Amino acid sequence: MNDLLVKIEALLFALGRPLSHTELAKQLGASTENIAAALAQAQPSRGVVLVDDGKQVELRAAPEAAEMIERIRKDEYAREVGKAGQEVLAAVIYRGPLTRSEIDFIRGVNSSQTLRTLTMRGLVRKIQNPKDSRSFLYESTTELLATLGVQRAQDLPEYTMVREKLSKLEDAYRQRESADTAASE
User: Fold this and answer.
1) Cis geometry, peptide bond prior to residue 97 (ω within 30 degrees of 0)
2) Which of 67, 97, 134, 149 has the smallest CB count inside 10 Å?
3) How far is CA 164 from CA 22, 23, 119, 141, 171, in A?
4) Residue 184 — pLDDT band, cuts 50, 70, 90?
5) Per-residue pLDDT tens for 51-95?
6) What DSSP assignment string belongs to the chain?
């Protein structure tokens, strides 16, 4: 059971999101009964604890660190999102929902930390990608729309025009890429 508990903790850490007992069992090739038994053996670790509501399990900061974490989060939320955050938000609003790799491609740099920060702030959320269960899509939240002072993304300035221009640019890029591929064959 200790080995299974280590795998549960590692999986929760790696994915960075809560998982149901059923998802854990499927991912780890174990029964839900074995998952429950392993979770029952969990002891608080140094800085993290397993929180289990009977349906979902997630890693959280240990209660002893809660005050420090709350202080750091408040500091983080008080700061502006910065240029990187603005770029990601623009991509998600005008072109989203997008995968992290699509956002990285648009920006030309790794966006993992920026997405994490924007997700923690509640400005974007991760949803399951219906085309690929191994990846997630990022989309705007009602918190983001409220922060921008609009009720719907379509109410943003020049929303339709920007989306149309982006679509034309993407079509041109795909055609150029297709022509390059055909020429190299």
Assistant:
1) yes
2) 134
3) 42, 39, 27, 22, 11
4) confident
5) 888 788 888 888 888 788 878 777 766 677 889 999 999 999 999
6) -HHHHHHHHHHHHHHTS-EEHHHHHHHHT--HHHHHHHHHT----SSEEEEE-SSEEEEEE-GGGHHHHHHHHHHHHHS--HHHHHHHHHHHHHH-SB-HHHHHHHHTS--HHHHHHHHHTTSEEEEE-TT-TTSEEEEE-HHHHHHHT-SSGGGSTTHHHHHHHHHHHHHHHHHHHHHHHHHH-
Smallest CA-to-CA distance from 136 within 144, 127, 145 is with 127
Spatial contact of 114 and 85, defined as CB atoms under 8 Å apart:
yes
Angle at CA of residue 35, ends 34 and 38, nearest 5°: 85
Confidence of residue 178 (pLDDT cuts 50, 70, 90): confident
pTM: 0.57
Residue 129, pLDDT score: 92
Domains and CATH numbers, the chain: 2-65 (1.10.10.10), 80-184 (1.10.10.10)
pLDDT at position 151, please? Answer: 86
More confident call, 183 vs 165? 165
